[in-house]
Each structure stands twice: as structure tokens, then as C-alpha cells.
């Protein structure tokens, strides 16, 4: 290789490395600024209502065991909802559970099942 070619390659690699490093620092600074403002906003929201917890309610029919839903399944679904909300689940009442139909093609479901079975 020519000395001039080697010089161009090295300068190009150094420039790319420096620009990528600067980009990483810019992203870190930006995320720190965003998290600082979001923490400040969350703190001001909590100051208005100290000790107040947001509780959502979903519904389950009282005769849900007649529709093939056991009380254990209802308890598991309620616990999952409480865990996803980040609360203790007190005051949470499930009134109905509706199964959502598959919008995924059957070949995709079969592929996932086969993949999971090979991992067991």
C-alpha cells in the first residue's frame, strides 16, 4: 500500500471513531436532561396528591366459573394486572375477562410453539 492511501484510511477511521464517541456523549447528556425533567415533573405530581394511589378497575362477571374460568385463573389475572400497575392490588376488582382472538397467522403460532418445544 501507498503511504498516502494508508494516511487517508487512518484519518478516516479516526474521524469516524471521534464522531461516534461524540454522538454517544450527546445521547448520554440528552438522556440525563430528559430524566432530570421527568423526575422533576413526577415529584411535582406527587406533591399535589401525597399518599394517593391510582387504582384501575377491570371487570369479571360473578358467574365467571360458569364460563370456564376458575377462581384461580381470575386470581392470577388480577395479580398480573396489579403487578403491571406497580401497586399492591388492594381495591382492584376484576369484573369481566374477554378473550382476544388471534390476529397472528396460524403458521406463526405453529412456528412459535415448535420453537418453544425445542427449547424445553
Strand content: under 5%
How would you spell out the order of helices and strands?
A: HEHH
Unreliably modeled segments: 60-66
Most strands sheet:
none
The CA-CA distance between the termini, in Å, is 54 Å
Q: What percent of residues adopt helix (DSSP H or I)?
A: 55-70%
Number of DSSP helical runs:
3
Find the structural class using helix and strand composition.
mainly alpha
Shape: elongated
Structure write-up:
The chain folds into 2 domains: 1-52; 59-119, no CATH class. Helix content is 62%, strand content 2%. It has helices spanning 3-48, 71-85, 106-119; one strand at 59-60. The radius of gyration is 27 Å and the shape is elongated.
Summarize the structure.
The protein is an all-alpha fold.
Spell out the key features of this protein.
single chain, 120 residues, mainly alpha, 2 domains, elongated
Amino acid at each position: 500500500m501507498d503511504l498516502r492511501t494508508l494516511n487517508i484510511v487512518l484519518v478516516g477511521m479516526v474521524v469516524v471513531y471521534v464522531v461516534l464517541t461524540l454522538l454517544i456523549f450527546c445521547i448520554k447528556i440528552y438522556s440525563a436532561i430528559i430524566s432530570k425533567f421527568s423526575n422533576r415533573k413526577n415529584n411535582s405530581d406527587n406533591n399535589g396528591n401525597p399518599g394517593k394511589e391510582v387504582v384501575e378497575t377491570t371487570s369479571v362477571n360473578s358467574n365467571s366459573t360458569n364460563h370456564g374460568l376458575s377462581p384461580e385463573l381470575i386470581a392470577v389475572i388480577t395479580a398480573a394486572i396489579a403487578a403491571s400497575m406497580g401497586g399492591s392490588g388492594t381495591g382492584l376488582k376484576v369484573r369481566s375477562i374477554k378473550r382476544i382472538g388471534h390476529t397472528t397467522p396460524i403458521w406463526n403460532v405453529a412456528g412459535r410453539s415448535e420453537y418453544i418445544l425445542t427449547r424445553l
